[in-house]
Amino acid sequence: MARDRRPPGRRGLPGLGKLFDMVDFMYLSGWQKFFERRLQRYGSTVFTTPLFTKTVVATDHKAISALFDTIPFIQDYGFGSAVPPKPLVGDVAPSVFETGVLHDNPKAFYFSLLRHRATSLPAVFEEVLREYEVRWASRGRFAWRDEIETFTMDFVLRWILELKFDTAKVRLIYNNIFTNHLWRVARFFPWTRYSRSLRYYGEFVRAIEEASSFEAIMEIARTFGISDRAYVAKQIAFLTGMNSYLGLQNLFKSIVGELSSRADIRSDLDLQLRDAAPGALFSPRVRAVDEFVMEVLRQHPPVFFIFGRAIEDVVLESASGSFDIAKGERLMGVIPFAHDDPEAFPDPASFQPERFQDDEARAKLIWPRGIQERPADTADRTCPGKDVALLLAHAFCTALVTRYQWTVVKPITWDKHRYSLNVAAPMGELEVAGFTIRDERAGRPV
Ligand code: HEM
């Protein structure tokens, strides 16, 4: 095994070379081929590329693990090239991009807020889903992609904030928050997407502060030493609009995608769920559904890349040996590669939920930023919503399988080429025909 050495690869490239790498990554080869070629070229799971800025790319499980902790890696403002314009976060860095108390205290506050909201979760989810199912059943054909986004946003706002707000406005802000690259120019033109997003952001933050739930939210925040109302409203805007909404809607689409194209799994889950507790979405947790969701997460991790910058010289342990990472260097973890590693997940290309019957496989699922099976902590970088996200995925999957029938108009396809928001979700509009509500107990259409 190699000992303490620099990751192979090109470190400094003249401007044109770097530009070519970016174009190749984004548009020509696409992210997967781009990394595959370098893996082969360097014969190492860790290598350097001038992509974005000089970046050490980690593609194996062991090397990516370093990014789960805060020390010695910190999170810069933005995820790689995905950097939200400061005005769209109210000129207050969201806590996910902070380190120390500015990260840990808000995160402790989110944990507490989630605990406070736990009891209302099943009822709110049920209420929102019942409204949407009627709407879906009344339509001949519709784009489920857009409907899932609207449903998710509506649910998140009603659940966390007890707020009904124009979902189209919030979706416009957060569906595009990482792609307003020309915002410094766009801000001079009121009709541009960026200028509209900024207006809607102001409305959204005001609505949060005026929500009837906000006083109770402030009370929780104060117990963690956070008393600035505007600061809390801005953090909550990002928590709901970005963290919760973007992750959940992506996962829900992937669940729809996999269920739509796997009739055998659908009917098998249907039988198991009907046996367990007809009509119940949240309990008991049926293990086969959890395994299905975990396999969806393995094959379609909603977030592909995670980042960290070394704040001291570090030796990175990886499947290809130990590498020296210099203070200031950026590390990027490529989760889909770690999930496709046959050492960790044999026959990775095939969709096999039963692989998660094995606790060793469960312990390897990297999602979301950390190990799925380990508890998240205020001082680490793991998503505080990961367990609730899994619970919601279980409920959504249960509802789809036991309550509805539908057909997708076009075969479901997945893209491993382009890199954008929703990159992990199935492609296209997810056009659906013949959505019907079944009699849950008998399994027949009503
Ligand atoms: C399927 C749903 C979700 C996915 C895929 C997801 C994914 C992620 C990922 C990958 C990260 C790490 C980001 C990074 O540092 O690079 C993260 C962090 C975070 N997520 Fe989630 N998330 C989901 C749901 C939620 C929910 C429901 C909440 C609501 C509380 C939430 C709140 C957060 C917060 C606050 C962080 C920052 C953690 C930190 O800075 O330590 N997420 N999420």
Please give a structural write-up.
The structure is a single chain. With 446 residues, the protein is an alpha+beta fold. The chain has one domain: Cytochrome p450, CATH 1.10.630. Helices cover 47% and strands 11% of the residues. Helix 6 packs antiparallel against helix 11. The chain is globular. The structure holds protoporphyrin IX containing FE.
Short description:
With 446 residues, the chain is of the alpha+beta class.
Tell me the strand percentage band: 5-15%
Mean pLDDT level: 92
What pattern of helices and strands is seen along the backbone?
Answer: HHEEHEHHEHHHHHHHHEEEEHHHEEE
Number of helices: 16
Outline, from the CA principal axes? globular
* CATH class call: Mainly Alpha
- Biggest β-sheet strands, sense, barrel: 5 strands, mixed
Number of domains: 1
- Count the beta strands: 11
Q: From the 3D coordinates, which CATH architecture would you assign?
A: Orthogonal Bundle
Task: Give the name of the CATH superfamily.
Answer: Cytochrome P450
Bound molecule types: protoporphyrin IX containing FE
Strand order of the largest sheet: 1-2-8-5-3
The rounded distance between the terminal residues' Cα atoms is 63 Å
